[in-house]
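Following the same procedure, backbone shapes were mapped to integers, yielding the entry below.
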Amino acid sequence: MLWEEAVPLMRQGYHKEMVVRAYDQVGTGEKIYPPRENVFDALRIVQLDTLKVVIIGQDPYFNEHPGKGPEAHGLCFSVRKGVPEPPSLRNILKEINDSVYGGKAVSVDTDLTRIACQGVLLINASLTVIAKQPNSHAALGWHKLTDDIIKTISEKRAHVVFMLWGAFAQKKAHLIDSSKHLILQTSHPSPLSAHKGFLGSNVFVKCNEYLVQHGIAPIEW
């Protein structure tokens, strides 16, 4: 990954240490999500020099569906085709359909890989979680790494759109140079807070307007 050359902690191998800590040093019999091979998928798909947008989640989905697999697959808010749609993702797709497509019945894939491939980094602050235990790896050490990634993007790139949804993500604003990037803050898309600012925020429209203003191809949400 080119990120290993750009991010100071990754150059030091910190991300490899974290994989060992997350997957090899937890209690016997505990399941960890996403699957080990997917933990860095967000960074594999999007490279620093092609990055346009950063969406920051808190931690991976922690559920698995019999016969369909785990919800988490390395991209925040995304689930693979066939996996039931989590409520937060449902609200994200609703906002896309309502604001970008004028409320028309546009089919938007729940697997957000196609968005990531356009330069959208879908990254959780914690890259792993214990099954059925939300936020269980918050103190494991992932935040140190993902904060370093955010700071590296802010320092090395210009005109990136950072979407900070909810109080947790908004705490990352101090890592971003707002003089050369756009920060879009709203409430979280979860059912408990989506109606407090996320739905109707036009964040996806505003994002594309900013990209176009700076000569960057917009995202096909």
